[in-house]
Specification:
Blueprint lengths: L23 E5 L8 E5 L7 E14 L2 E3 L4 E12 L15 E9 L7 E7 L2 H7 L6 H7 L9
Antiparallel strand pairs: 1-3, 2-3, 3-5, 4-5, 5-6, 6-7
Length: 152
């Protein structure tokens, strides 16, 4: 009879080598969506991104993660902008169009600057991945008709 090592106990939470996954500390959806307008998104190492017709639909701030060797903490702020669809009068309101996720990387360490990135996304999966794969955001995105589901 052969034995399998596939079922291995989970690592303890006290292991120094475990990765600390980001957690959503603040998740804010505007109670009233603003009209579509121009949005300028900063990006480090690339030209800034001007989105001609978009609106803010979600903001998320992660809980700070301590960087013990430096005594500092780091966190991120994400903003999701919905790009105005080409056909706003579409009969299918169950699906959303493209989105832009802006990412701001913050640090409490003196001398470190805020870092900026932006990602253009077509699906809920891409939005979720651009936001660091934070598990708590899956149901939030699903409520917004950006399901974090891969279809076969």
């Amino acid at each position: 009879m052969s034995t399998s090592t596939a079922a291995v106990p989970a690592a303890s939470s006290s292991s120094p080598h475990e990765v600390c996954m980001p957690k959503a500390m603040n998740v804010v959806r505007p109670t009233v969506l603003k009209r579509y307008g121009q949005i300028l998104i900063k990006r480090d190492g690339h030209a800034d991104l001007l989105v001609k017709r978009a609106r803010l639909v979600l903001s998320v701030e992660t809980a700070p993660i301590s960087q013990s060797r430096h005594g500092a903490s780091r966190w991120k702020v994400f903003h999701v902008y919905e790009i105005e669809p080409d056909y706003p009068d579409s009969l299918d309101s169950s699906k959303r169009g493209k989105a832009v996720v802006s990412e701001e990387g913050h640090s409490s360490r003196e001398g470190e600057v805020v870092r900026y990135s932006a990602y253009v996304c077509d699906t809920g999966v891409q939005i979720w991945e651009a936001m660091g794969k934070i598990e708590e955001l899956k149901p939030v995105l699903a409520e917004m008709n950006w399901a974090v589901v891969e279809e076969l």
